[in-house]
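Model it.
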Amino acid sequence: QIFPPTIQIIGEANDYRHHLYNSATQDAVTKADVSNHNMLDVSAVVYKGTKYVKGHVVVVDHTDESTEFGKIVVILVNDSKWYFVLELHQSVRLIDLGLYCLHCPTDRSLCVNADSLMDYYPIPLYNMADLFVVSLHHSVSS
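Modeled.
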């Protein structure tokens, strides 16, 4: 094989057992209508050369007024499809620092096909003076 597989699983991979997860994760996966057949919960994946790890943040929605982020809490892989279960966070832009400060998580979780994300780039989450912040340094204009 000349080219590597599109999705490479890195680290641990366990069978996804729906009943073992909290209700927010269960609800998000159920609403997304994701098949649990042969589904794996993995700690990290590499997709088209980009590594996604639990705990990183992705942009879910971006407008002139606000940006909503999703913290990756579960990565699900099924054959050639893969999904994130995201803990959603609203944010406030810290203009002087060029950062976004994430609010406490909302009560909402979301399960999305990774190909449908607004932006593909995973963002590390930093703790600065008891605030969780992210820096946008990619295609979503900050």
